[in-house]
Amino acid sequence: MDAKNKTLGELLRGGDNRRKFIIPDYQREYDWKNHNFDIFWEDLIHASNKGETFFLGMFTLNYKGEKNNIETYEVVDGQQRITTITLFIKSLTIYLLDKQEESKNRGKISQISRERAALIDFLNISSSYKNRYKEEPKLEASPSIRELVKWYCLEEEFDGMNYPEKIPGIGNGTTKNMQIRRAGAVVEDFYNKIKGLSLNEVLKISSTLKNADVIETKVESDDEAFLLFEVLNDRGKDLEIGDLLKNHIFSKKGDKENFQREWDEIRHNCPNNFSTLLKQFVYINYGYVPGKMIYKRLKDLHPKHPDIFLEELKEYSEWWKLINVKDFPDYKEYVEQKIIHRHSNATERNVKEFKSLEALRLFSFKLVYPLIFSYFKKTSLLNKRKKDAKLIEESRKLFLRNIENHVFYNYLIGRQKVSNFEKIAADFSKKIMDCENTISVFDNLEKDLYEKLSKFKVNKDEFVGRFQSLNYENDGKILRYIFFRMDMSRNKEKVPGSYKPLWGFDSTSANNEIEHWAPQNPPKNSEDQYKSDEYYFSKVYPKLMRDDIHSIGNLLLLTGDQNRDADNNSPKVKLDKLNSCSDELSRFVKTFIQDYSEGFSNWDAEQIRARRQRLSEEAHNVWCQQKERIDLIRK
Description:
With 635 residues, this protein is an alpha/beta fold. The chain has helices at 8-13, 34-50, 79-102, 106-120, 146-154, 174-194, 199-210, 222-233, 238-252, 256-269, 274-286, 294-300, 306-324, 328-339, 348-353, 355-363, 369-382, 386-413, 418-434, 438-454, 460-467, 472-491, 532-540, 546-549, 560-566, 571-579, 587-596, 605-624, 630-634; strands at 2-7, 18-22, 55-67, 70-77, 124-129, 132-137, 139-140, 213-219, 513-516, 555-558. The chain is 60% helix and 10% strand. A hairpin with a 2-residue loop joins strand 3 (55-67) and strand 4.
């Protein structure tokens, strides 16, 4: 590897031959943030004002050959900086164009014209070959902004504001707007920084930039470039794991164009938290692995078969995307058809089967994703034997419910350290995939997984205490889920009378409304409507504290229609409204009325807190115990 000290101008111009720079597809997209631009700008201004040398660091280039006196280089290290420099130079040419049109001094016009021509020489390459004149951009940027940067480099008269209706290569649609947001915003921001400066100040800045110090290093082969890229970027940052992996696979896979499409689709499935997805993908294949070893394990997975690696990673990225989105029907269809391999209509029975998955999505407890994926993936492979089909279906419900209960009890409410769960879940993601038959899957789950998870349970007093702190203002979505599960639990009890079960806990559903039994605002009943006990409540209400009003002890889950009927009335009036539609009430609401109706006239803080305590005890019974075991199903 050859290293030389140069100025930026020498780096960009080259020697006898001119230079063209390409950002290879394995590099990450252009993603400098505001603080990166600010540092670049402040350092440049400081150097210009002080007459000091501006240092731009090392640029590592992979020489790709020479044609028509133009040397082509791929940028191995420094792509973010060389792209930013190109966009900054474009903003300088726009400024100088403005000044050239404003000036009436011929000497100034000549000076501006020369400086602008020198900067344009850093943006494009003009050549004549076999009597054909050709212009091409000096920089071929990353794909997300490539065509716009090319246009910037070639369109010398662009004024910084008026874009043409169509830009070659990207047209006038969404892609154009996206590229303008990414690259055009940078040009605009830099232009806004310099437009208030004098011509002499800008000329000095331009000179400082052209004479900035750089270190140019060259490599002579793709293998050396891939290796150097990995060494230069392997700094232990989660953000870079995906870039390193892309570089590694790109160096192995022959069809790079097809690989780029596959990689783009994977990244589209997970635009954020990509390092977390990769870590979980490793867990499925290796069990728990420390953060520093994630990239090494990724490289070791199918080293000779990048196609298989990409296929498996893409499958997990699809799971990741769908388990993180809100559109439940699409998610359910994916799980059934691609993971469980069951084709069925959305019957009530099948929808109920997915309530535990919906709960885990509601919790945003991502640590459980690889464990569920492994379980579904493995059981789908084993489900081909008819004798195991019913066992698998019933066990899947129990597995999901037990995981749901454990996460809710110990982590969502109990606030246990998530690292305890992560290590266990990661190891069992691998163990499940290694099981050879259905019985061993369930043996592992029952004998090992549940037992190990149970060692990290919070005690009852801790759970009950934290459960009582739940309130409407902070926990609205979770409260819908809690009331739904309590209603399900009560529905198992054989009690005479008719009732209508609560259905779901999605906050967007018309059948899910949180009702404050003591209303959030003073009851609207006029005094002449009050009976004696209602009038008494009007005296009690002002004594209620805000925390009491929003406490779980004062809340119910009603249908949308029931919630509108209850309105902002006092408890007694609400009771009359609900009694008029008694057959439509859930068991959860009916038992509330049965247990507390005698005290509605005096629905005060004491009763609210008493109900809060009672609900917390009930919650312990609902979520703590693993009532059904796999061995019962086997029988």
